[in-house]
Amino acid sequence: MMQWEKLLSAKRWGSEDKYNSDPTEARSEFQRDYDRLIFSSPFRRLQNKTQVFPLPGSIFVHNRLTHSLEVASVGKSLGRMFYNHLRTQNHQIDDDLPLISEIGNIVSAACLAHDLGNPAFGHSGEAAISHYFTDGDGLKYQKEVSEAQWADLTHFEGNANAIRILTHPYAGKGYGSFALTYSTLAAIAKYPCEASAGHQKANIYTKKYGFFQSEQAGFQKIATELGLSQVSQSPLVYKRHPLVYLVEAADDICYNIIDLEDAHRLKILSYQEVEALLLALCNDPRMPGRLAEIEDDDAKIGLLRAKSISVLIGACSELFINEQNTILKGDFNASLIDRIPEPHRSAMKEIARISVQKIYNYSSVVQIEVAGYKVMGGLLEEFVPAYLHNNSHYTRKLVDLIPKQFITSRTDTYSKIQTVLDFVSGMTDLYAVELFRKIKGISFPSIS
Q1: Cα separations in angstroms, 154 against 133, 162, 241
Q2: CATH number, residue 312
Q3: Which of 89, 209, 302, 387 could form a disulfide with 198 if both were Cys (CB 3.0 to 4.6 A apart)?
Q4: Domain HD/PDEase, which positions (predicted)?
């Protein structure tokens, strides 16, 4: 069984020998994690990355940045509720586990970073990168990389890319990069296994994968330090850090509820449709009376959204508390949101059904997915062979467009492909579209 004494660590990635926490400092080590993330360039770029809907201009919809901030807020509440429960059960808990009061801050920081590795165009961007290697021009590189490395490329995963962004020593950035604490890094890893073990639905920790081959040794170092339960060595698989369940729950709560709110703003769902879905989730007999006192539909949905999130936080928190021993053993084989009690579980399933039917298949959402395939695939078609071979005036000009921080001194094919993926996956939707149009000759850059 995993132990909180080891699972909570303020040791910092890349700065392990420099940890010297000062109790007189205004911020804890985990609050520093949060601040480092929120002031970082990769986090700011989330502002122009699609969450679900293409950014329509005058009508506000959530992007990856606003989503991440909301997830962090919910995650902090989940962590604090768990800590408050532990404190009521054991008044000496802070003496026994000095870092236990920081769980809310750890979860909040991990929530802030949970989408950091997602490329432009949401999950369509991930699929487009994978498609380039499985069915596009990238297929010809299969014989130049190992089987395990090929699994990374053909199943490009934003979760693994987040770990890479947070730990990889990019040129000029210093070895520690973000230098986050080990516990925050582990709390991000929803699927702590390598790609060849991922995409197996039997276990929640192998539904996808959590680190590339290039970061495998680093993640193993984190897992060993924190005492994560190891399932196998080859392929490398661990069970989840317990706080992953809270990070995942915060994400599930936010996107399920907020997507309904955005769909109403864009007139994809009527007020009556959203009201029916959220009233069933709230299960509060007083809510219809409160709604009757409000005239504005957006304000009504705001109230329903707030109440729904509160209900789900309470249900997920209670479940995490009740299942703590099973979770510490690594044997809780579901997300918290999938195991909340009735009637909330059925209400969430109906929200998920309607979301797939009417939101995620809405014309503008599908259009952005198709555009993502074309744009991301088109960029890879240009930059991957250019960087791998760089044998002409044209390819040298293309390589000059790749920021120096991504350029690697390694000469193997896998590392050089990762250089291009680091560059392309970090782009915002708008930058990717503009660069695609320019290098394909569809538009020309302005000279100012």
Answers
A1: 6, 17, 26
A2: 1.10.3410.10
A3: 209
A4: 60-265
Q: How far apart are CA 160 and CA 170, in angstroms?
A: 16
Does 175 reside within a domain? Answer: no
DSSP notation for 99-143: TGGGHHHHHHHHHHHTTTT--TTHHHHHHHHHHHHHTSGGGGGGG
Q: What CA–CA distances, in Å, run from 4 to 76, 109, 323?
A: 18, 18, 15
Q: What is the mean pLDDT of residues 204-212?
A: 97
CA 408 vs CA 142, 170, 395, 418: distances in Å: 20, 8, 17, 9
pTM: 0.93
From 170, 158, 162, 163, select the one nearest 130 (Cα to Cα). 158
Q: Helix 271-282 and helix 243-265: axis angle, to 10°? A: 150
- DSSP characters for 139-156? GGGGGGS-HHHHHHHHT-
Residue 421 lies inside a defined structural domain of this protein: yes
Q: Dig out the tokens for 68 from the structure.
A: 């991440």
CA-to-CA distance for 318 and 436, rounded, in angstroms? Answer: 48
pLDDT of residue 14: 85
Cβ proximity of 391 and 362 under 8 Å: no
Around Cβ 207, how many Cβ atoms within 10 Å? 15
Residue tagged 């989503």 (tokens): 67
* Residue-wise pLDDT tens digits, 374-386: 999 999 999 999 9
What does the pLDDT read at residue 150? 98
d(CA 328, CA 140): 44
